[in-house]
Model the fold of this input.
Amino acid sequence: MAGLIKIGKFAANKIANKNSLGVIIRSASHWNKDWKPGPYPETQAEREAAAKKYGIPIEDYKTYENDGTGHGDYPKLDDISVERRDPYYPYDFPESKRNFGDVYHVDADLYSEDRYNNSQQRYSMKFMVLSFLTVIGASAAIYIFLEDYKTFRPVAAKQFPRDGKVHYTFEAPH
Amino acid sequence: MGNGIALAHKPEVTPPPFCDIQFDPMMGFPEGRKERVMIATEEEMVAAKLPYEQRDYCAHLAIKLLQCRKEVWPWAYKCQPERHEYLTCEYEDYILRMKEYERERRLMERRERIKKKQEREG
Done:
């Protein structure tokens, strides 16, 4: 109860005090429209401004085609999954192998370390498909081959009085 | 496992699982056989809402067990004698079915034996 009163007092104080509310809502970028990329850069000056905004050198700055998908001036980064980044570099955020201020790839949700790795795989795709088909095919072949050899309990049909037949025990009637 | 292989290789002398009896039930019983008696009536089974698969020759014991449980609930352990009686009846019913299966199998083998003998002789 004392804890509830404490929380209530804290909330009342937060609402009454305008300054502390201002601390909670201080960033101008608090809604997804604020993070929307700008319009597609047409001139060189616009390109330089956009590159500076995203913090990457102008010679590395490429954009997606202005085909209406809405990427605007967002930079087109190489498709390199997080798995391929150097694991020994001292990153600011080692768990996501990312430095502060690094631009996200448009498909960053796809290329994160727990999703998809587009680097050279240990085995070729052909080898992996063939391995899969070999194992599954062998299992299916064994299953189909043994289909007629299923075991069962040596027992006759259950006898119900509703069958309309006369059922007998193995005893003599007298 | 032997049953499955026998059914695949010798289907003429191996009855399939849950088979119906195709031979005359009195075959090989010169004194005849005792008929199985159904004690519970249809009305009793309907009144007890007995599931369809329990309406066999042990239905009267199933009804007795259900009735006992209803009377002493929640002390269901008090119905242990009734439960034992019912499950023993079901066990004996299963043994009877196994015997029927074995009889069927031996009669099929006998039929094959007679057929082969006839082919040899004539």
